[in-house]
Q: What sequence folds into this?
């Protein structure tokens, strides 16, 4: 017998595996040594968090035009928050402190993504300055320019992926050190 009220439930917008695969790709990319060794990103919890936010921002930008993109974006953001919460608890942060830390993470996310959105529309140099301020602690402008170039190239390459390929998570982020960085470097598996 079918339950007569099933039509009141929200439809599942994204399969859990898709969100986990995309989030896993972001986390794997953030762990690449080239960001810390060559681009000056501090190899600290804060530096890794800021780099994670940069990649999450790039993916969320790509999700906007997809049919059902709002639901996918929310599911990805929720997964990100769940991961942060779990990591805080694993590090021994107390139950009363976790909500305060999560609020600070949320403020950091919205502040940085807003700054990146504004800077991206203004051009490469404003994006480099925003990345320099938020990821590189205000120094290493030349490395921030390289990071901005990487971000712009990733955004352009992600935009060229068709929605099905993007949703299937059958592509990879390229490394910033790849000399011939292009959209062709994204689909490798």
A:
């Amino acid at each position: 017998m079918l339950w007569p009220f099933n039509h009141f439930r929200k439809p599942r917008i994204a399969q859990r595996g898709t969100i986990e695969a995309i989030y896993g790709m972001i986390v794997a990319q953030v762990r690449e040594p080239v960001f810390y060794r060559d681009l000056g990103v501090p190899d600290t919890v804060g530096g890794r968090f800021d780099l994670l936010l940069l990649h999450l921002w790039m993916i969320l930008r790509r999700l906007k035009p997809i049919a059902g993109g709002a639901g996918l974006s929310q599911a990805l953001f929720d997964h990100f928050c769940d991961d942060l919460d779990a990591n805080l608890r694993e590090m021994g942060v107390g139950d009363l402190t976790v909500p305060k830390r999560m609020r600070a993470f949320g403020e950091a996310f919205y502040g940085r993504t807003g700054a990146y959105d504004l800077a991206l529309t203004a051009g490469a140099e404003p994006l480099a300055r925003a990345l320099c301020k938020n990821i590189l602690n205000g120094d290493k402008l030349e490395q921030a320019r390289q990071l901005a170039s990487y971000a712009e190239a990733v955004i352009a390459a992600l935009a060229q992926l068709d929605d099905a390929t993007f949703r299937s998570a059958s592509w990879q982020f390229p490394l910033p050190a790849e000399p011939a960085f292009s959209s062709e470097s994204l689909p490798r598996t």
In short: DSSP finds eight helices and no strands in the chain.
